[in-house]
Amino acid sequence: MKTTMVSVSDQELISRYLRGDKSAFETLVMRHKSRIFSYVQQMVRDRELANDIFQSVFLKALETLNGGRYQEEGKFLPWLMRIAHNQCIDHFRRDKRMPMLNSTDERDVFEYLDLREENAQDRIMRRQTHETMRKMVAHLPEEQREVLVMRIYGDLSFREIADATGVSINTALGRMRYALANLRRMMHKHKLSL
């Protein structure tokens, strides 16, 4: 039955779940877990904490669905992203700290760079460039960093980012534009080119 659910819309899976088909919710989790987990991990920069928050996102979704409070508007993923966003913000409020990118992380926002055959010197330069870029991204205002992470890691559209963060699409676009402008300015200051 699960294989037939792959092509079923989120809305239909929600309806099936609400009618008692528990495997429909499992399909929703499997469908969206990568995007949600990637976003959360990029925000909190701690795998164990990301797992905890990831689970709380889906528990909150279940609670809302079971309580009959979910408003179906064909926007299940942006709704989940908004829950994830709120759970991360709640975590930082409790800890009274803001997320920072860690220079020891294996993955970063800039791994998508096109890297051809590299020699040892190229690899060292790439690592130094990535470390510098991570530091620059860490200095972006939270809202700009968040949009950048959602766009690159979550592969979300600006409409989905706007829905997840509770802002207009123009605000989401503006934050991305400012993030890129700030990164360019910092790159120029550090005489860094990619």
Number of domains: 2
At CATH level 3, the topology of the largest domain is Rna Polymerase Sigma Factor, Chain: A
H and E string: HHHHHHHHH
Instruction: Report how far apart the termini are.
Output: 48 Å
Q: Which whole number gives the mean pLDDT?
A: 80
Radius of gyration: 19 Å
What's the short story on this structure?
The protein is mainly alpha-helical and 194 residues long. The chain has helices at 2-5, 10-18, 22-44, 47-66, 76-95, 120-138, 142-152, 158-165, 169-189. The radius of gyration is 19 Å and the shape is elongated.
Write up this protein:
The protein is mainly α. The chain folds into two domains: 2-95, Orthogonal Bundle (Rna Polymerase Sigma Factor, Chain: A), CATH 1.10.1740; 120-189, Winged helix-like DNA-binding domain superfamily/Winged helix DNA-binding domain (Arc Repressor Mutant, subunit A), CATH 1.10.10.10. The protein is built from nine helices and no strands. It has helices at residues 2-5, 10-18, 22-44, 47-66, 76-95, 120-138, 142-152, 158-165, 169-189. Helix 3 packs antiparallel against helix 4 (47-66) and helix 4 (47-66) packs across helix 5 (76-95).
